[in-house]
């Protein structure tokens, strides 16, 4: 028990460290490649150009809103909820006439850019009247000439849709064409990731055609396609390079909906791998919650669905960190190299996406609108999980061939073992019966002692023959269930080998189909035989638990030498057991419970129509 607690404490320690690192990195802002120029009382001195640099215009700008006095307002920051206003900033320039570019990613607002009382450009349709204002999210770069001396830059903003208004994202200027090149490079990266994610989705759909775990590949592929679409609607909003006339409200609804659906699909793709039936049910509730929020987002006003979408971040974060906890436990306890590698990749993927979620959530709460990390972290998340799923498929295919070969060899071995059992057991007893019967016939009188011996030998022969029949056909439908067959196996082992053997079956009592029943029985049988052949147990425990969502099983024994290094190899029937479980769409693992106890465990999703 102390070893189990020690293992839990170790896992909890690693989990706490990961949680701390994710939290601290989420609080840290992303370094910018631009030089910050801080305005004081609405005035900034633009330095002489000594290279290709972008400048972010921060600090105190002058803000004039209808019905209010002109006052200082920090940029970037949320200045008001809805309405209009005019930002002013005086740029002091000591150089000659120089072409500059202006850029801001102020999604949700419409604005006009003025320099020295001349209109430079606009985004959307600016108007202080709500009915005439039209918001835009399309990234635009405006050109202007900075003259020697004072230059008054004005940004007239109107917003009647987004719950945040004003210059709440960074404002940049740069010598022409640096801003254009910078945006094009970033948009090209977004489009590259879009194409990569699309290919990842096609790969998963291709694997689904041949895999026994089709649903995981299909749901993951659908989630990947939605992430690909959602990612080009963030940061550089590269979707406008594909759809330049996309309506703003349609764009914002699509942005929210894609992430609702992608999150739901990703959780649903792996929900059957959760070790707890309660969490499996919660994952299903989460999935349907995402579907519900998607439908709601189609009809409710944007100012309502926006805060709901923000509240979604911590929920997804909790699911991701729970998966980190589960995979940490798998990595620390599993004895299968394949399971350890898969666990490491999944831990890294979940940590990265959890970081992206927490970073962007903190950024929204603190009104710190730097680079959004979700697009990049979802790309890495999908890439790593694609490796996990593809690797699992390749290894499963390889091990399927190995398992088939071992099944053929095992069948031959069992035939030989059956022949030996019949010869050494039943045949010898029948020969003894024949000898004793012949003696009675020759003596021509009844000997009660010999008759009793004949009877006992006959019973032993019948019992041994029944054992042979049970080995050949342990479950005879109509007379024997899986539950009774497992209890019979436990009784035989305790009687034959003197090892305490416990058998526990919990949950619903079901008559499974032939494929499921036979495969489950032989997994238990193979695990018990391994315990006898490769360990020296004092007890063996078999557990079968059936719930509404999963069939869970385990076989543990305490015969492992704590000082021995355990090597799980194909000769121990591991590949056959794994093959049988994965044939049923389940997951299989072998782990240490403590230094002396080994546990074989599996989990199979329920398919009630053909159970």
Automatic annotation (TrEMBL):
Catalytic activity reported: ATP + protein L-histidine = ADP + protein N-phospho-L-histidine
Record's keyword terms, sorted: ATP-binding, Kinase, Membrane, Nucleotide-binding, Phosphoprotein, Transferase, Transmembrane, Transmembrane helix
Gene Ontology CC: membrane
SUPFAM superfamilies reported in the protein's UniProt record: ATPase domain of HSP90 chaperone/DNA topoisomerase II/histidine kinase, Galactose-binding domain-like
Residues in Signal transduction histidine kinase subgroup 3 dimerisation and phosphoacceptor domain copies: 416-474
InterPro entries for the chain: 7TMR_DISM_rcpt_extracell_dom1, Galactose-bd-like_sf, HATPase_C_sf, Sensor_HK_TwoCompSys, Sig_transdc_His_kin_sub3_dim/P
Gene3D superfamilies: Histidine kinase-like ATPase, C-terminal domain
Domain 7TM-DISM receptor extracellular: 188-390
A Pfam family recorded for this sequence: HisKA_3
TM region positions: 191-210, 217-234, 254-271, 278-299, 305-326, 347-367, 373-394
EC number from the UniProt entry: 2.7.13.3
GO molecular function term, any single one: protein dimerization activity
Enzyme class at the top of the EC tree: transferase
The protein, known as: histidine kinase
Protein source organism: bioreactor metagenome
